[in-house]
């Protein structure tokens, strides 16, 4: 069983972290501002988006931006993808000039065609020898190496457990496992049972991923022996899953942040997005995260509809302020009405 004492100053995969709630790598999502938000809310560790090793070697601005460290927080894992060990090593040499990082991740999970056609991402699940060689070569840099895999599809000739074992034998410090096959992409349910079996087979060395949407999901994976749990879409859907999970793991009553405090954190986050990534990208991220921030708030749907068509950063701020003012006034009316009733 998970013990409260495990939640502080843990050591997973050769990295020390304050707790086992980790922000998963997410392309186009886990930018510096989002990583900072996750740490502010209590996450123990964050990942960069996946970065192309060949893109790094070419010096592509977009790829280098992925490893942008501006105003970042530690511990931080840089995740790379490549189709072979040599490209990976050359990419890692460039990545480490963007550091500091606490571990190097290898993406062996991405099912997207543009990654698969390079023999990278989940294409490596069919090539355990190449995957092992990538881990071995990356270990030479002296950093913990964290591959991230998906569940092996039925009939692939190797089980997920065998694949994970090969990665550990090659020197991986821990292995993140997403309990969907590449063919499932993000559809259907993650196979929680299989991931938990791996957690039991490699206690404290698996980072569990797949359908983590509630604090109870976090506890479930940790109770099975996961070294840590990766928050992905559950973080976008409700970033306050982090403090709620920490409350649950620590046996504290759940603290419910007020609308005003959510709004304050959101405005700070929006400011960071704009400062670090520019108004265009920031606007897209604000639209993506706003529904989750104000999920349980009356009028959250109206906010989403209001923000949807906006293309201008200043207009977005005005509409957001208006929505907040209306919501606060609505709460005041409700309070006054309750007092009159009472
Ligand atoms: C928008 C998005 C981008 C992602 N990008 C990456 C990535 O760059 N590297 C990676 O290993 N996994 C990536 N993933 C997979 C997540 O890290 C995670 O394993 C997956 O979403 C399953 O967790 P969930 O069901 O709790 O969302 C991505 C997922 C999403 C939704």
UniProtKB/TrEMBL annotation:
Entry EC no(s): 1.3.1.-
Signal sequence region: none
Positions annotated as active site in the UniProt record: 110
Keyword terms: Flavoprotein, FMN, Nucleotide-binding, Oxidoreductase, tRNA processing
Binding annotation for FMN: 25-27, 79, 148, 178, 232-233
Gene3D superfamilies: Aldolase class I
SUPFAM superfamilies: FMN-linked oxidoreductases (SSF51395)
Known role: Catalyzes the synthesis of 5,6-dihydrouridine (D), a modified base found in the D-loop of most tRNAs, via the reduction of the C5-C6 double bond in target uridines.
UniProt family annotation: Belongs to the dus family.
Full protein name: tRNA-dihydrouridine synthase
Species of the source: Jonquetella anthropi DSM 22815
């Amino acid at each position: 069983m998970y013990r409260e004492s495990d939640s502080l100053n843990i050591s997973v995969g050769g990295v020390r972290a304050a707790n086992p709630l980790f922000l998963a790598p997410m392309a186009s999502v886990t930018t510096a501002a989002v990583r900072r938000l996750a740490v502010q809310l209590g996450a123990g560790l964050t990942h960069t988006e996946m970065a192309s090793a060949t893109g790094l070697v070419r010096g592509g601005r977009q790829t280098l931006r992925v490893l942008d460290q501006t105003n970042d927080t530690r511990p931080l894992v840089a995740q790379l993808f490549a189709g072979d060990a040599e490209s990976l090593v050359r990419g890692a040499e460039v990545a480490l000039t963007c550091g500091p990082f606490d571990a190097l991740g290898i993406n062996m999970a991405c099912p997207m065609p543009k990654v698969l056609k390079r023999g990278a991402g989940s294409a490596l699940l069919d090539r355990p020898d190449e995957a092992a060689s990538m881990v071995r070569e990356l270990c030479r840099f002296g950093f913990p190496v964290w591959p991230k895999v998906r569940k092996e599809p039925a009939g692939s000739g190797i089980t997920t457990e065998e694949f994970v074992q090969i990665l550990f034998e090659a020197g991986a410090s821990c292995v993140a496992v997403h309990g969907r096959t590449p063919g499932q992409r993000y559809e259907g349910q993650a196979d929680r049972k299989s991931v938990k079996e791996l957690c039991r087979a490699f206690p404290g060395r698996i980072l569990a991923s797949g359908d983590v949407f509630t604090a109870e999901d976090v506890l479930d994976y940790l109770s099975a022996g996961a070294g840590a749990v990766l928050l992905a879409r559950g973080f976008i859907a409700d970033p306050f899953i982090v403090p709620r999970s920490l409350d649950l793991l620590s046996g504290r009553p759940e603290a419910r942040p007020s609308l005003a405090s959510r709004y304050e954190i959101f405005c700070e986050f929006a400011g960071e997005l704009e400062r670090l990534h520019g108004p265009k990208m920031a606007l897209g991220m604000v639209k993506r995260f706003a529904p989750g921030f104000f999920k349980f708030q009356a009028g959250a749907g109206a906010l989403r509809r209001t923000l949807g068509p906006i293309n201008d950063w200043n207009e977005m701020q005005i509409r957001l302020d208006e929505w907040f003012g209306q919501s606060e006034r609505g709460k005041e009316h409700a309070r006054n009405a309750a007092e009159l009733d009472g």
